[in-house]
Specification:
Elements lengths: L8 H20 L4 E3 L6 H5 L32 H11 L6 E3 L4 H15 L14 E6 L3 H9 L3 E8 L2 E2 L1 H10 L3 E6 L13 H9 L8 E5 L9 H6 L5 H7 L6 E6 L11 E4 L2 H11 L8 H11 L2 H30 L6 E2 L8 E4 L5 H10 L2 E3 L16 E4 L6 H24 L1
Parallel strand pairs: 1-12, 3-4, 3-6, 6-7, 7-8
Antiparallel strand pairs: 2-9, 4-5, 8-9, 10-11, 11-13
Bound molecules: pyridoxal-5'-phosphate.
Length: 428
């Protein structure tokens, strides 16, 4: 088919009539489908059910160092839980603090501590006239939500297949001491699936920052979430902590991860890794607010996942459920949108999302129309700070939760709504 932008009015009108009819048929189906959030499907959650039926013998709650996990104590986690979480954080167990069940909470708390108390003796960020933060876009809406809650000025920087535009990042951090940090999802970035190249990691670690208290919030949420054995065998992001040490900036990064999309979302185990100086500051501040996190859950996770090999095996079972959904997204977008022009999308090797760019000015309208037909997508604009995508082009596709047949219907709706929004824009 000819790209829409090259069609004359009469062909566009014929196309509009065809799409109107298709839209009415879809509406008549009374769909109620949700592709808004990257939640694991029920089948994925079923993979971890043995976690809940761990043997109830008299050693079930005793950790390897003899700790009775039913009781208080152990601020920064059981030794075996640190070992397990170190696999996700690509760091040494003694650099790990195991937290509660949400990495987002750990990130929020880390930010809030710097805001309130400052970084290693520097002025608390709340005392500064303004705090600025670099946000690779499109990015994760809840990262932006953390900053929004504190009134931080967010600076969008484009993300490419190999990470953020580093020329831009280096320029911004060199110029302004009020720029205090950057969000990074280094592997299978939400939503584009970008994987940071080793050069990008080295540049982040070594760049000259005007702020002495600049921090990289390294959210490795999808560290083991490969969609194929090939990706699992070949994709590995350079260790940012190691790169920071080599560059003489050992305290620059805080790493975060969780088992939310490995075991149970919101009921897994979260952890962070950092330098010894960062760790002692974090422990000090953390100890005012918690006596110790849920060690029974830590123990259950260690016994269920065991080690790096155990995690790898478990993630293969997730991939077997997820990969056909990601394949279907690629097929449907190719069939449905490749001919009209001005659309592009990512083909991630792992993670939870596909990032779709539709003709500028059409994303919001396409998402609105889809909702009218009963398909809920992530709000257009959510992948940008303040929910404002200046091109109104990006839509995040989250294919994990619906079944394959529901996903197929939802993608038919999405394709129809994008096409219709574009035709209407051209005819307006
Ligand atoms: N970080 C990223 C990049 C995510 O995509 C998500 C969930 O979608 C989270 C963090 C949330 O993690 P948690 O469940 O550990 O709070």
């Amino acid at each position: 088919m000819t790209p829409y932008a090259l069609m004359d009015r009469s062909r566009l009108e014929a196309e509009r009539n065809r799409l109107d009819q298709q839209y009415r048929q879809l509406k008549a189906q009374g769909l109620a489908l949700n592709m808004a959030r990257g939640k694991p499907s029920a089948e994925q959650l079923d993979l971890s059910m043995p976690l809940l039926s761990a043997p109830a013998d008299d050693r079930a709650f005793i950790a390897e160092d003899g700790t009775d996990c039913r009781n208080y104590g152990g601020l920064d986690g059981l030794p075996e839980a640190k070992r397990l979480m170190a696999c996700l954080l690509d760091d040494r167990p003694d650099n790990v603090i195991v937290g509660g069940s949400s990495s987002l909470t750990l990130m929020y708390d880390a930010f809030a501590r710097y805001w309130t108390f400052g970084v290693q003796g520097d002025a608390p960020w709340c005392t500064l006239p303004v705090v600025k933060w670099i946000c690779p876009v499109p990015g994760y809406d809840r990262h932006f939500g953390v900053l929004e809650a504190f009134g931080v000025e967010m600076i969008p920087v484009p993300i490419r297949d190999d990470g953020p535009d580093m020329e831009e990042v280096e320029r911004i951090v060199a110029e302004d001491s009020l720029v205090k940090g950057i969000w990074c999802v280094p592997q299978y970035s939400n939503p584009t699936g970008a994987v940071y190249a080793p050069e990008v990691v080295d540049r982040l670690a070594s760049m000259t920052c005007a702020a002495t208290d600049f921090r990289i919030f390294w959210d490795n949420a999808y560290a083991v979430h490969h969609l194929s054995d090939q990706a699992a065998a070949t994709i590995r992001v350079r260790d940012i902590h190691e790169a920071c040490r080599q560059a003489g900036n050992p305290d620059r990064c805080l790493k975060f991860a969780s088992t939310s999309k490995i075991t149970f979302a919101g009921a897994g185990v979260a952890a962070l890794a950092a330098s010894p100086a960062n760790l002692s500051e974090i422990r000090l501040r953390m100890s005012a607010g918690v006596i110790g996190y849920d060690k029974l859950n830590q123990l259950r996770h260690v016994r269920f996942l065991k080690d790096e090999e155990g995690i790898r095996r478990h993630m293969r079972a997730h991939a077997a459920l997820l990969a056909p959904k990601f394949d279907l997204v690629q097929r449907k977008l190719e069939q449905g949108l490749s001919d009209i022009g001005a659309c592009s999308w990512t083909t991630p090797q792992g993670g939870y999302f596909v990032s779709l760019d539709v003709p500028h000015g059409c994303a919001r309208e396409a998402v609105r129309r889809a909702r009218e037909v009963g398909v809920t997508l992530t709000s257009a604009g959510a992948t940008w700070p303040q929910g404002r995508d200046p091109r109104d082009a990006n839509i995040r596709i989250a294919p994990s939760m619906p079944s394959l047949s529901e996903l197929e219907q939802a993608l038919d709706v999405l394709v129809c709504c994008v096409r219709a929004a574009y035709v209407d824009q051209l005819l307006a």
